[in-house]
Amino acid sequence: MSGWIIWFVGLPGSGKSTLAKAVVDYLQKHLEQEVIYLEMDAQRKKYFPQPRYTKEEREQAYLLFAQEAMELAREGKGVVMDGAAYKRKFRDYVRNNFSRFAEIYVKCSLPTAMEREASRPAGKVMADLYQKALIRKRTGKQFAGLGEVIGVDVDFEENPQAELILVNDHLRVDEAKNQVIQFVRTWLNSK
C-alpha cells in the first residue's frame, strides 16, 4: 500500500486528538501498513525546544510538520496528523504537494471547545488556555508562553471541501469515533 496522510484539524478542545488517536489505534490493528501518529504539540517541541509561540514560529512549525508527514508518507507509511492548523494554507500545502491526503475537520462551537479544554489537565498544552486568552483580551494581562489562541485571537479558517466535516458538539465519543473510522476505512479503500 502506498503512503497516505490524514490530518485532523479544529479548535483546541474540539475532540480531534481523541479521534485521531482512536483512528491510529484502529488502523494499527487492522492494516499491515505502518501507521505513524504525529501530534503538533509534541512535534513543535522537537522543532523548537523552547517554543515562543510567535506567529513566525507557528508558521515555521506547521511547515516542518507538513514536510515531516509528507516525507514519512513518501516512504510508504500511513500518517495521521493531529494539529489545529487554523490557517487553510497549512492544510492546502499538504493537499497541493501530496496526492493521498484527507482533511478531517472536527467542528464544534467555541463554548463547547472551551468547556472541554477547561477540564483538561496541564500537559503539552497550557491549562485554561481559553480562559487566559479571554482575560488577556479583556484586561491586557499577559501569560508567559500563551500565544494567539484559535477561536479567541484568531479564527479557524474552515475548508468546506474537507474530506470529512464532523460536527462534534453533541456526539458521544463512541459515535464520533465510529463515524470517523467508517470514513477512514472507505477513504483508504477508494484510493
Give the secondary structure arrangement, pairings included.
Blueprint: E1 4-9, H1 16-30, E2 35-39, H2 40-47, H3 55-74, E3 78-82, H4 88-97, E4 101-107, H5 110-118, H6 129-139, E5 164-167, H7 173-190
Parallel strand pairs: 1-3, 1-4, 2-3, 4-5
Helix pairs in contact: 1-7, 2-3, 3-4
Under CATH, the homologous superfamily reads P-loop containing nucleotide triphosphate hydrolases
- What is the number of helical segments per DSSP (H or I, 4+ residues)? 7
What class, by secondary structure content? alpha/beta
Instruction: Tell me roughly what share of residues is in helical segments.
Output: 40-55%
Largest sheet: 5 strands, parallel
Query: Which residue ranges are poorly predicted, with pLDDT under 50 across at least 5 consecutive positions?
Result: none
Topology pattern, helix = H, strand = E: EHEHHEHEHHEH
CATH class, named Alpha Beta
Q: From the 3D structure, determine the CATH topology.
A: Rossmann fold
Q: Could you tell me how far the N terminus lies from the C terminus, measured between alpha carbons in angstroms?
A: 10 Å
Question: What overall geometry do the principal axes of the alpha carbons give?
Answer: globular
